[in-house]
Design a protein that fits this description.
heterodimer, A: mainly alpha, 11 helices, globular, B: mainly alpha
Chain lengths: 333, 307
């Protein structure tokens, strides 16, 4: 990405990303308004329901509602939540940090453990440690996250009492995080939910990284390095790992959808007050503005993950620095 | 569980083992199939899958009780595994083994059918985009970009929750319609590479129409990634259905799927973990076997030698 070509590439990718997010929001908006059922509960007097619908503009044609939503969105206004009776923005500001903490911890565990295992396995390829770890990661990678969450809860929460069985903090001593003890308390509550997501992800990362390392291992430059007498440790770290990390960057971009899906389930099971649980409840109560806003955030995260991976890849791999100055994409080798 | 049920399970086990052994014997003749069986996990995966498919097909023979019958809501709730109830009973006094056997029909059925819809659609879109290129390619691939950015769990939750529980067929189609984006990208890349090859050019020069070229010349040569993504797809769809059923919006009770069995057992997990444990293990076994088989297919059909 040298000079104007890189800048233009970035601008084009950014525009594409915004267009994708826009399309997602439109799709969700249409889907949710096509669905049968209204946000009013069944016990509500129909007249009150009609009045409330008018108040929120739900009696207008869908095109008008869509236009209004877009105008509000352009002003940074996500609307009012029906079920929470407060601005969607406030609800999100409260819950998104919890999901970020959960996803961040899970991602860290996923990558650190997964990379370490994958590199270790590749260095012992097809020998006993590799075979044992290979079978173990295959099994863990195949576990349903929500089931693993329940089992961890049963073993480490209920039977061994090592970790709390739900929530994000001690409701009596730490309603707000205002001391070192409360920070520790938050970490203590975070262990099981993050481990659920992180361990399953790490198993996938380990399998992926092992394959990537072995793919690189058969390349000529590795053989050359070995012939030159470079130490095995140097070969693994400088020749194999650095090149295998390139495909790892792509995986990094793909980790976000998995974390989002997992967050809905894991947050529900561990009563973690994050965005996933909020969105799930919003869908059940037909809270249109809240659902659309959650989808907006979720798709932004996915698209941003892909964009970030592409940029990192361009930075890390000189072969992929594309000049899009001319009509054709020229790859500078 | 009666003697007949145990015998049926035993027969299923033997048939599955023999089936895999027969395949392995045949495989020795051909290099490609030898590669398929190179890892021991592939044989195990194939055996486990065969066994569970047999159990699903022969559910009335292997299951001692009606899966939805509450046997005795007073005395037989949350019974630990025993000879009568090999996997215990659930909080509603239903036999967990019988429900697991019948649940296999639903879970494996949704997995296979959902993946079939997804892979068929993904292959079709990918082939059209890759073969015709130009504006068709641009339009389709921008659509796929959006599809990949859609938070799939949201779409499914919305579809299922807002329409108040979908029937089986609608659930399969909804899952299939939201799962094909990855496959289509994969197939498109293959087709783009294949359409330049001499045999495709030759077929076109001989006057074969586009449909014939795509289906007879291009797609058969892209079989490897399609088969692999189908095998992985079955596992993904199965996990997805289980998640939805666990959240209470997939397969409607009282019918058993492995996902809603976990949901049913979860409230009693501290006193009766077996009604949660076993359906989850069944899911893990199937997904693991599919991953192992997919690895084998990749080894067998990948022309490059992988270590």
């Amino acid at each position: 990405m040298t000079g104007g070509g890189g800048g233009r590439w970035l601008a084009r990718r950014l525009a594409q990303s915004v267009a994708i997010i826009f399309a997602v929001v439109t799709f969700i908006f249409i889907l949710i308004h096509l669905a049968p059922g209204r946000p009013c509960s069944e016990n509500l007097d129909p007249r009150v329901c009609a009045q409330l619908s008018a108040q929120f503009g739900l009696d207008k044609p869908i095109v008008v509602q869509y236009w209004r939503y877009l105008v509000e969105l352009a002003h940074g206004n996500l609307g009012m939540s029906f079920s929470l009776r407060r601005p969607v923005w406030d609800a999100l500001v409260e819950t998104v940090p919890f999901t970020l903490q959960l996803a961040g911890a899970a991602l860290l565990l996923d990558f650190l453990l997964g990379l370490a295992l994958g590199i270790y396995q590749a260095s012992r390829a097809n020998r006993l440690p590799d075979v044992i770890l290979g079978n173990a990661t295959l099994f863990i990678y195949s576990l349903p996250t929500f089931w693993l969450a329940l089992i961890l809860l049963l073993v480490f929460g209920e039977k061994l009492h090592w970790f709390p069985v739900g929530g994000a903090s001690d409701p009596i001593f730490c309603p707000v995080v205002d001391s070192l003890y409360c920070v520790a308390d938050r970490f203590w509550h975070l262990v099981l939910p993050a481990a659920t997501l992180g361990v399953v992800g790490a198993a996938g990362t380990a399998r992926f990284q092992r394959a990537a390392m072995l793919e690189v291992a058969s390349q000529d430059y590795v053989r050359t390095a070995r012939a030159k007498g470079v130490s095995e440790r140097q070969i693994v770290l400088r020749h194999q790992l650095r090149n295998a990390l390139l495909s790892f960057i792509t995986r990094f971009g793909l980790a976000f959808p998995f974390l989002l899906t997992g967050a809905v389930l894991v947050e529900t099971i561990f009563a973690w007050p994050g965005m996933g649980r909020l969105a799930f409840d919003a869908i059940l109560t037909r809270d249109y503005p809240l659902v659309t806003a959650s989808a907006l955030i979720a798709s932004t995260v996915v698209v941003a993950g892909n964009l970030l991976a592409d940029i990192l890849l361009g930075v890390a791999d000189p072969r992929l620095r594309v000049h899009s100055t001319a009509d054709a994409d020229v790859v500078t080798a | 569980m009666t003697f007949g049920n145990w015998f049926a399970v035993l027969v299923a086990l033997v048939v599955a083992a023999e089936f895999v052994r027969m395949l392995r014997r045949r495989a020795l003749a051909q290099e490609r199939w030898r590669r398929f069986f190179r890892h021991r996990t592939t044989s195990w995966g194939l055996g486990i899958l065969t066994f569970l498919v047999l159990v699903a097909l022969a559910a009335p023979l292997v299951a001692p009780f009606d899966p939805n019958r509450q046997l005795d809501i007073v005395h037989l709730t949350n019974r630990a595994p025993s000879w009568t109830f090999p996997l215990g009973t659930d909080p509603l006094s239903r036999d967990v083994w019988s429900r697991t056997a019948y649940g296999a029909r639903v879970s494996l059925g949704i997995g296979a059918l959902g993946a079939l819809v997804a892979v068929a659609l993904g292959t079709l879109v990918g082939a059209i985009a890759g073969y015709y290129r130009r504006w068709i390619d641009s339009v389709l691939m921008r659509g796929v970009d959006v599809g990949l950015a859609l938070p799939r769990i949201f779409i499914l939750l919305m579809a299922v929750a807002l329409w108040d529980g979908l029937p089986f067929a609608a659930l399969v189609i909804t899952i299939g319609l939201t799962s094909w984006f990855g496959t289509s990208r994969l197939v498109r890349a293959e087709v783009l590479a294949l359409r330049q090859r001499d045999f495709v050019v030759a077929a076109r020069a001989l006057g074969a129409d586009s449909g014939r070229v795509i289906f007879r010349h291009v797609l058969p040569n892209a079989a490897a990634p399609i088969i692999v993504s189908a095998a992985l797809g079955v596992g993904n769809v199965l996990l997805l259905e289980a998640s939805l059923s666990f959240l209470g919006i997939g397969i409607a009770p009282p019918d058993a799927s492995w996902g809603n069995m976990i949901a049913d057992g979860a409230p009693a997990i501290y006193t009766a973990p077996w009604s949660t444990l076993f359906p989850g293990l069944a899911i893990a076994l199937v997904v693991m076997s599919l991953n192992a088989v997919a690895d084998g297919v990749r080894d067998a059909l990948d022309p490059r030698e992988t270590p």
